[in-house]
Amino acid sequence: MVYLLTVPEGPISKNRLIVTLQICRWAPRDNYGRLLCQGHHLQWLSRGGRDVLQNMVLICPNHHVAVHRCDSPFDYQHHAFHFPTHKERLLLNTHLK
Q1: Residue-level pLDDT at 37
Q2: Which helix (H) or strand (E) holds 38?
Q3: Quick one: which of 33, 39, 76, 89 is 20 to 30 A from 48 by CA?
Q4: What number of other Cβ atoms are within 10 A of residue 26's Cβ?
């Protein structure tokens, strides 16, 4: 199992993370030799969120589009995104309390 590394406070860099995606556990680097992940701010920057690790999850491009197009809120108690038809929990979580 691969976990997120602890990174210093400040802007998030995908290059400083060992990546297995947190919803679907896809490991693009294993399959393609490239980082194909996308960082998502749980509280969007445009809605006052901060650019810190505690406000981020790494998700695949498909989940990222779905979260934005469905305007899916994140449930901090259950560590899950709420979509119109269902919710999807984070399968990996080592940094959110």
Answers
A1: 81
A2: strand 38-41
A3: 89
A4: 20
Rg (CA), the chain: 13
pTM > 0.85: yes or no = no
Residue with tokens 């960082």: 39
| Mean of the per-residue pLDDT values of the chain | 78
Amino acid at 3: Y
C-alpha distance from residue 15 to each of 11, 29, 46 (Å): 12, 12, 23
Q: Is residue 44 over pLDDT 70?
A: yes
What are the strands, taking DSSP E only, across 1-97? Answer: 38-41, 56-59, 74-75, 80-82, 87-89
| Distance from C-alpha of 75 to C-alpha of 56, rounded to nearest angstrom | 13
Using the predicted structure, report yes or no on whether residue 8 has a pLDDT greater than 50.
no
The pLDDT of residue 16 = 44
Give the largest CA-CA distance in the chain. 37
> Do residues 36 and 61 make contact, with C-beta atoms less than 8 angstroms apart?
yes
What are the residues facing 58 on neighbouring strands?
39
